[in-house]
Amino acid sequence: MSIPSVSELSLLKVLWKEQPLSAREIHERAVAELAWSFSSTRKTLERMLEKQMVSQRTEHGVQVYAAAVDKVGTLAAFAHDFGQRVMELDAPLPIHMFTGSKLVDQQELAELEQMLRDWPDGKEKSS
Amino acid sequence: MTMPIDMFVLLFAQASFNSIVVALGIWAVLKLALRIRPGLAAQRAVWLLAQALAVAAFVLVLLPQTARFSVLNGFTFAAAPAGADALSTTVLAQADLAPELGGQEASGDAAGGRWIRALSYLWVLLYGAGLFHAVLRWRAARHELRGLLASASVLDAAALHRHPAFDDAQLRRLARCNLAVLETPAAISPMLIGILRPRLLLPRHLRDFDPQQQQMIVAHELTHWRRRDPWWLCASLLAQTALWFNPIMRKLGARLNWAQEISCDRLVLAGRPQPQRQQYAAALVLQLKLQSKLQQAVFRTPPRPTLAFGDACAETLGARVRLIRQNGSMRPSLLSQCAVAGALMAVAGASILLQPAFARPGDPTPAPTEAAGAVPGTAVAPALPAWRPPLAKMRVNSFFGVPRNGGTSTHGGIDLGAKIGTPILAPVDGTVIVSGDDGFEGNPNYGKVILIQHGNDLRSLYAHLDRRSVKAGDTVKAGQRIGTAGVSGAVSGPHLHFEVMHGGRRIDPERVLAGLDKYGTEAALRDRDRRISH
C-alpha cells in the first residue's frame, strides 16, 4: 500500500467521515486544514485516483469520489511512517519526548532491562 | 558606503570567533564544576545561562562602543578605510607599551589585512549559507511533524475521561491550560509539541501500559508544560540556530534537554516509593523497545547506532534510569549555583575586556590636502613657526599623506597613539573656532572635534576626542589642556587624529612639529617611506 502524503491524508480523512462527495464538497471540508485553492484539491484528487486511493463515479450527473483505501490500515501506515521519521529527526524541534531525543540500540536496551531486574526492592520505603 | 560594511564584516567575524572562544571557556568551566557538583547537570538554569552568555559574547562584540572596554587596544589592526583593496593595516601601538615592544607590534601589513578582510567576507557568506540550510532543515522537520499530527485524532473531553492516563487533577489542569491531547497509532514516544498551540501527543499503545505508568508518563509531560520547559527549549533552539557554527551550543542545548528530562522525572517521582520508581523506569524502557520495533518495522533495518547527540557518556539512558532509582534530591546548594554562574559570567566578561578590537576604518581623509604624495623637502614651503607637541608622549601611528582608501585618497593628518583620557595640549596660542560632537565639515567619522585658529593663517584640528574642555570662542594658551583623546567617531582604538591647515589647505603637520620621525612606529614609517618612494 502506498503511503499518502499529508495533503492526501487530509482529503482521505474528509472522505472517511462522509462519502461519496464531489470535488467541490471535498475542497470545502478540507480547505481550513490545507489552505489552498480548489484547483490544488482537484489535482490532488486526480493523483490519488491514479494511485487508487480514491474511486470516482458519476451520480446525478456529478462526479463524486469515495475512499478506496481502508481507514485503519492507511492511518496506521501513515502514522508509523511519519512517527518513525519524527523520532529519528535530528533537526531541532520544540518537542519534549518522554524517552528523550535519542535513539537506542539493542545493547543499550539489554543493559536497561538488566537494571530493571536489579532494582532495589525498597521494602522499607514502600507503602 | 563600503566603509561601514567592511567594518561590520570584520566585527561579525570577530563576534563569531568570540562566541566560540567564550563557549569553549564556559564548557571547560562547566566540566570542572560538574566534577565537583554532579547535581548541576540537572539544573536547567546552568545550561540556559551558558547559552545566553555565548550569545551575549556574539552580540556584544557587534555592538558599537564595546571595543572601548577592551584593554588590548594596542594590538588592534587598524583596518584602513574601505575601498577597493584598502586594508593597509597599520598597527596602533599603545602608548605605554610602545617603547618596550617597539617594532614587535608592527605585525600587520597590507597583504595580511587583505587576507583578513577576504576571509571575513567569506565567513559572512558561509554563515548566511549555514543559516539558510538550518531554515531548510527546520522546514523539513516541521513537515514531518505536521504529518505525524495529521495521523492523530484529537481526544475530546469525554474521550479524555475514559482514558486511564488522566486523573481528575490532570483533567482540570488540561482544561485550564488549553492543552489539546491527540492520539496517534504510531509507536512514538509520548511528547509535548509546540508553544503557542501546545499539544500533548500520545501513542495509542500507551493504553496497554499499566494505568499508574500511564499517569506518571502524562504527569512527566505536564510537568514540562508547567515549568515552561517548551519556551526555554525554543529559546535554546533559536540560539543554536543563530550560532549554528558553534559546536558547543549544540552540546549545551543537549545538556539543557537532558536537565529538563531529569528534572521532570524527579518532580514526578518525588516522594514515591521504589516499586513505583521501578514502574516508571520500566515504562521508559518499554517505550524505548516499542520505538526500536517501530524503526525495524517500517524500514526493515536494524536501528541505527546512537547518534552522538551531545555528550553521549553523560547522557545515556542508563544514567537516567540510575537517577530514577536514586531517591532524594541532588540539588546543589545555592552557593555552588551562584559560584558557577559567577564563573561563567567572568568568562564572558573577560572576552569583552580582552577582545582584539579590529580597528575601525582609519581617519577621515577629505580632500583637498596640500601634499598628496608630496615629499617633504621637495616642495618649496614657506617657513612656519615651530609648535609644541599636542601630547606629552608622542607616538605616530600613521603619517600625513600616506595612501588611504586603496590609494584614492591620502591621510589628511597624523594619528597619534593615545589611551582614552590622555590630555591634549594646545600646541600654540589661538582661539577655538569649533568645538563639537558631530564630526567635522559634515563628516561624522571625525567624532568629537576641536578646531583652533592660530596666527600665520594656521589652524589645528583634533578629532576622535573623548572629552572637550574648551568651547568655541575660548582663547587658549600654548600648553593649555583642551580635551582628552578618545574613540569617538570611526576609530579602531583610541588615538588622536591631528590635522594642520594653512590658508585653508591641509599641510603636513611635520612642518610645524619638527622631528616627528623619531616618534613614528615601524609600520607607520614603512607606510610613509612607501609613499615617498612612489
SSE layout:
The complex is a heterodimer of chains A (127) and B (534).
Chain A: H1 6-17, E1 21-22, H2 23-34, H3 38-50, E2 54-59, E3 62-67, H4 71-88, E4 95-97, H5 106-117
Antiparallel strand pairs in A: 1-3, 2-3
Helix pairs in contact in A: 1-2, 2-3
Chain B: H1 2-36, H2 44-62, E1 77-78, E2 90-91, H3 98-101, H4 110-150, E3 153-154, H5 157-162, H6 168-177, E4 180-184, E5 191-193, E6 199-203, H7 211-226, H8 229-242, H9 247-269, H10 274-299, H11 317-325, H12 334-353, E7 396-398, E8 403-404, E9 409-410, E10 414-417, E11 423-425, E12 430-436, E13 449-453, E14 458-463, E15 465-468, E16 475-476, E17 481-485, E18 495-502, E19 505-507, H13 522-533
Parallel strand pairs in B: 4-6
Antiparallel strand pairs in B: 1-2, 3-4, 5-6, 7-10, 8-9, 10-18, 11-17, 12-13, 12-16, 13-14, 14-18, 15-17, 18-19
Task: Describe what this molecule looks like in 3D.
The complex is a heterodimer of chains A (127) and B (534). Chain A contains five helices and four strands, in the order H-E-H-H-E-E-H-E-H. Chain A has 127 residues and is an alpha+beta fold. Chain A has a three-stranded antiparallel β-sheet. The mean pLDDT of chain A is 85. Chain B has 534 residues and is an alpha+beta fold. Chain B folds into three domains: 2-127, no CATH class; 137-337, no CATH class; 396-533, Glucose Permease (Domain IIA) (Distorted Sandwich). In chain B, the strands form five sheets. In chain B, strands 7, 10, 12, 13, 14, 16, 18 and 19 form an eight-stranded antiparallel β-sheet that branches. The two termini of chain B are 28 Å apart. The interface between A and B is large, with 50 and 78 residues. Strand 4 (95-97) of chain A pairs antiparallel with strand 5 of chain B, so a sheet runs across the interface.
